[in-house]
């Protein structure tokens, strides 16, 4: 079985859409801005953990893992 996953994330270009670093500024969070390298590293780390959980799970656990992934994804959706 082959899976191909792709995504685009706007880290610091405030046009033509929302970028992560602008969202940090708008929320008045005490965070430093993401670099592209840091964002890729964190994202790949989260993705690897999720895939590991999914690949070691039985069908019920896989369903729970997928549901948790969607909850996480939807709770962090940034589009306006």
Task: Give a topology summary.
Blueprint: H1 20-26, H2 36-55, H3 59-75
Helix pairs in contact: 2-3
Distance between the termini: 35 Å
Assess the beta-strand content as a share of residues: under 5%
Average pLDDT over all residues: 82
**Class by alpha and beta content:** mainly alpha
Give a quick precis of the structure.
With 80 residues, the protein is mainly alpha-helical. Helices cover 55% and strands 0% of the residues. It starts with 19 loop residues before the first helix and ends in a 5-residue tail after the last helix.
Provide key terms for this protein:
80 residues; mainly alpha; 3 helices; elongated
Written account of the structure:
The protein is an all-alpha fold and 80 residues long. It has one domain. The protein is built from three helices and no strands. α2 runs antiparallel to α3. It starts with 19 loop residues before the first helix and ends in a 5-residue tail after the last helix. The relative contact order is 0.11. The model has no long low-confidence stretch (mean pLDDT 82).
């Amino acid at each position: 079985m082959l899976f191909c996953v792709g995504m685009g994330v706007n880290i610091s270009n405030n046009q033509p859409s929302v970028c992560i670093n602008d969202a940090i500024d708008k929320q008045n969070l005490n965070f430093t801005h993401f670099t592209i390298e840091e964002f890729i590293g964190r994202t790949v780390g989260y993705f690897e953990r999720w895939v590991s959980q999914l690949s070691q799970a039985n069908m019920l656990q896989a369903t729970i893992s997928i549901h948790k992934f969607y909850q996480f994804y939807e709770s962090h959706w940034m589009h306006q």
